[in-house]
Amino acid sequence: MSGDLRAYGTGDASFVAAGGYEGIRRLVDAFYEVMDRAPAARRIRDMHPDELEETRDKLTRFLCGWLGGPKLFREKYGSISIPGVHGHLAVGEAERDAWIECMERALEDQPFTDDFKAYLIEQLAIPAERVRVRCQELQGRDR
Q1: What is the rounded CA–CA span in Å between residue 83 and residue 134?
Q2: Model confidence pLDDT, tens digit, residues 86-114
Q3: Cα(140)–Cα(143) distance, integer angstroms
Q4: Three-state DSSP class for 129?
Q5: Which of 10, 4, 14 is nearest to 117 (CA)?
Q6: Exposure b/e, 4-34, CB count within 10 A at least 16 = b
Q7: CB 72 within 8 A of CB 21
Q8: What pTM did the predictor assign?
Q9: How far is CA 49 from CA 93, 96, 137, in A?
């Protein structure tokens, strides 16, 4: 439960638990810093542009809306299908797991409650798996 006793995933409870836009931006910045340093994340880091400012902005804006806050991604970039926009990439189990591991490590230093950190990783694993499945489906069609 969050500090205001609303369940995560209800209304803006998750957005509030993450510290709003600023808290989410700190998490995203930490995530990409971990990705830059983690050898296990090299393949997924190489799937990103060298310059990450727009990528950081997109993930921050997406997470704001996904966590029940303002739909900032849509306001700036339009609608998005996370599995769809990643479908051209070679994302398998190792890449999915490296992405989640980077997020877990980024969460370690965030001032979120432990229960929110656990909730967030559990929830992020869902779209991460959907991306993996979509990528594998599309890779199979190319053969």
Answers
A1: 6
A2: 888 889 999 999 999 999 999 999 999 99
A3: 6
A4: helix
A5: 14
A6: eebebeeebbbbbbbeebebbbbbbebbbeb
A7: yes
A8: 0.90
A9: 21, 18, 24
